[in-house]
Amino acid sequence: MKNFTSVHDVEDVAWLCGRAFAFKEKPEREAQSGRGKTLGLIFLNPSLRTRLSTQLAAQNLGMNVIVLNVSGEGWKLEFADGTVMDGPEAEHVREAAAVIGEYCDIIGLRAFAGLKDRERDYREELLQKFIEFSDRPVISLESATRHPLQSLADLLTIEELKRRPNPKVVLTWAPHPNPLPQAVANSFCEWMLRADVELVVSHPPGYELAEQFVEGAVIEYDQRKAFSGADFIYAKNWSAFGEYGAVLNRDPDWMITAEKMELTDNARFMHCLPVRRNVVVEDAVLDSPASVVVQQAGNRVWAAQAVLSEILSETGRGNRG
Length: 321
Ligand code: SN0
Prior knowledge:
The protein has 321 residues and is of the alpha/beta class. It folds into two domains: 155 residues, Aspartate/ornithine carbamoyltransferase (Rossmann fold, 3-Layer(aba) Sandwich), CATH 3.40.50; 149 residues, Rossmann fold (3-Layer(aba) Sandwich). It has 13 helices and eleven strands. The strands form three sheets. It has a five-stranded parallel sheet with strand order 9-8-7-10-11. Strands 2-1-5-6 form a four-stranded parallel sheet, sandwiched between helices. A two-stranded parallel ribbon has the order 3-4. Helix 2 links the parallel strand 1 and strand 2. Helix 2 crosses helix 13. The longest helix is centred in the last third of the chain and has 23 residues. The chain is globular. Bound molecules: N-(3-carboxypropanoyl)-L-norvaline (SN0). N-(3-carboxypropanoyl)-L-norvaline binds next to helix 8.
């Protein structure tokens, strides 16, 4: 594995899950493999789980970790070519990524969708420029269209908790006051479609995700119908893809409630966090034994460790990116 930006970078998803579970069982099993190597974690947006779990995973492999919060501490970056840089942007990604590549053997990058220019976001311009100009392996810590470390941890959690083969997994849209990226939802779908689950996606009209992510999933506009017989309920808000970045619906009737969870087959409740209580999901669900959000977040460490270990085994063979 050279870069880790989507499920398409993974040859064998089941095998990668196996590696993650092996690290969960024995975190120090490859404690020397990253010795003398540096991971740089570059954040253009806030983070709690991603920053801590990826740092912990790298340390378990013996790596050095350095973190830069670009939005708070770095120079404001320019990404477009040929611009006259007389505005607030002080540094171009061409130099910034190249310099980070000098310091780091592997780079993790968080760069959310801007939600203004759909073509630019879906081309993954920021991520691609970091890959190109750093000349190092890059791990997505949530890009414009995907959050693959989250999705891998989600899959690990489903594998640990499923009570039957081919469980019914429902991704449901839920309300939120602000426009959020489609990345978590897109990514969850493409990973679930590579796993042994029955995927149902439920959202109000207007919230259809890009075809490339949901092709093969069942779309059910009636949330209650979608919940029927479900083994896992995965809640997430996203803004519209069609009317790009718009908040079209704030209907509290889409919130996940204990009453709706009754429609499922004793389903577990999942969310990537952070979650807005009593907007996305009511306290009664989040505080019930059905909620597995903390276990899910815990699995972020093993997802990151499995991915880092794979990339290290490549860089060890002298691959500079
Ligand atoms: C991000 C998202 O992509 O939806 C990160 C999730 C891992 N979530 C948010 O930005 C939530 C912010 C909020 O105001 O609730």
